[in-house]
Design a protein that fits this description.
- The protein has a three-stranded antiparallel beta sheet with strand order 1-2-3, with helices on one face.
- It has three domains: 43 residues; 45 residues; 89 residues, no CATH class.
- By secondary structure, the protein is an alpha+beta fold.
- Strand 2 and strand 3 form a beta hairpin.
- 41% of the residues lie in helices and 15% in strands.
- It starts with a helix and ends in a 15-residue tail after the last helix.
- It has nine helices and three strands.
Amino acid sequence: MISQETRAQIRRYFYAEHWKVGTIARELSVHPDAVRNAIEAERFRSMQPLRASVVDPYIPFLRQTLEQHPSLRATRLYQMIRDRGYSGSVVQLRRSVARLRPHNREAFLQLHAFAGEQAQVDWAHFGHAMVGRAKRALSCFVATLSYSRALYLEFFFDQTTENFLRRSCSRVSSLVRPTESNPVRQSQKLCAGASRQSDPVSPSPDRT
């Protein structure tokens, strides 16, 4: 009976260092059978080789067809390969089609920002709040620092350009370095000549 430390050492020599069983046995002064038990060699000998599937001869045809027609249903493919001699079931075919069908990934632009370089700002809708007897729409000004993902929140009863620019200039710009490519820098330029107005600022599509 070997200790857990010796067992771990045997497995490291075999799987990580790729030592042979005899080499490990001599190095650690243990019986080769103890090494085989530690690496569970019997489990590998008992494993049966994978049997060939009846779908295998049709894999090239299925792959080519799905590349040209990614949304083609498995039942239609079943009819197509059955005419070509396929004798298996539609269930077997569905498993192969699920593995072979190409998955369309949505394209996106990954941005990288340095600390204090960029922030993203937007409005978020938080329903309504009662102010006395009046029901007012409640909005939240949200700023997210692109590098640290830190959040700044402030609630308002409107989404006016005045509040948008004021918070972009006074709050967010204190956390972000002013660079010409910075969205906050652009809002600072607008802020300098912005007059008081109440035009609503529409939220971004991904916030609605």
